Amino acid sequence: xxxxxxxxxxxxxxxxxxxxxxxxxxxxxxxxxxxxxxxxxxxxxxxxxxxxxxxxxxxxxxxxxxxxxxxxxxxxxxxxxxxxxxxxxxxxxxxxxxxxxxxxxxxxxxxxxxxxxxxxxxxxxxxxxxxxxxxxxxxxxxxxxxxxxxxxx
Length: 153
Known about the structure:
The chain has helices spanning 2-16, 29-40, 47-52, 54-63, 82-98, 114-123, and strands at 72-73, 103-104, 133-134, 136-139, 144-147. By secondary structure, it is mostly helical. The protein has one domain (28-152). The radius of gyration is 18 Å and the shape is globular.
């Protein structure tokens, strides 16, 4: 992965006329882990450290990911499901670091239940199951997080 990032930066520098990027500097790994843990706890004050070392921080955030066995979490439920909430925070931090949204296709057959209908509507383009879906989507008006089926996580 690091090779791909370096090649991308090299191509970008040639296209934009910038100088060749220097190889990544050694990182202070002792600063990254506590910063990642603070971000996963919902404390954004450590995000600047993650931005200083985006590759190593991304690796640490990716290592914290796992599937979430629930379909949705309301705002009130989020404090009771810390493992799921930490995954949401990790993906948000990865999005912020990389500028990428992480999506995958699913073979899941959504049911005709209220939760599945809401989930399908938010995770897909209004029911278009031919396109990949994000790991989760948030209904902003209620701060409810809907998770993709496990095969898309």
